[in-house]
Amino acid sequence: xxxxxxxxxxxxxxxxxxxxxxxxxxxxxxxxxxxxxxxxxxxxxxxxxxxxxxxxxxxxxxxxxxxxxxxxxxxxxxxxxxxxxxxxxxxxxxxxxxxxxxxxxxxxxxxxxxxxxxxxxxxxxxxxxxxxxxxxxxxxxxxxxxxxxxxxxxxxxxxxxxxxxxxxxxxxxxxxxxxxxxxxxxxxxxxxxxxxxxxxxxxxxxxxxxxxxxxxxxxxxxxxxxxxxxxxxxxxxxxxxxxxxxxxxxxxxxxxxxxx
Length: 260
Ligand code: NAD
Known about the structure:
Blueprint: E1 6-9, H1 15-26, E2 30-34, H2 39-53, E3 57-60, H3 67-81, E4 86-89, H4 104-132, E5 135-140, H5 153-173, E6 178-185, H6 194-204, H7 208-219, H8 228-239, E7 250-253
Parallel strand pairs: 1-2, 1-4, 2-3, 4-5, 5-6, 6-7
The structure holds nicotinamide-adenine-dinucleotide.
């Protein structure tokens, strides 16, 4: 369905981003991967995606807290793949603490990686989409782009910001063949939330498994984690022609969290 499209996916060395990379490659898209991690593991994943799906898969290790490196990431994608048709702004970090105890440098880092990086990627990628007359920009927000939780000031501010940025880009690109949407997952079991599960397990004297379940049930009526494959399937749909009139939205995929 996405044969020959060129996709940049930030934060695609693990978790949700890696699953999106697998799903887009499965539809025939060429990929530019990005994110941190063990070089050997990154290269293994890159080579496996290319081999299994017969697509070009490149990797760029840009640190998304650095605007100059973000420009380099988009330039590297254009040179390796020949353009950018699909941009998935997915990289993200977390820190939990009350506002009084929140380290200012963690605030700055979360705003830079979870929010500002999406401005910079879009700023550099959009001209390529306009030239092609087609594009898909999909921003990984969170339920915290729609509602708040205590201890998550920077994360909630950044994710609300990304929902706002999504709407503006959608308005500026409306009718051009380009859409811009955000999706808003509830709890997904990835590296990002392991520290929160560990803290809950320790606090209640539970196993990691029980701690995870306790954490999910507190907010997510389904009582079940969302899988990375379920999220990736939504992204494939948003890239399809069937979704050409879906733009400027923030789509919850959250087991009922934000229905309450
Ligand atoms: P993850 O930790 O597995 O993935 C995060 C990715 O971002 C990794 O590839 C990491 O290397 C990359 N990254 C972090 N800092 C970076 C930087 N400075 N420069 C470049 N890459 C960087 O976690 P995940 O759960 O897959 O998170 C992906 C996205 O999903 C994030 O935006 C997160 O906020 C969002 N999200 C996660 C959940 C959840 O429950 N796991 C829920 C809602 C939203």
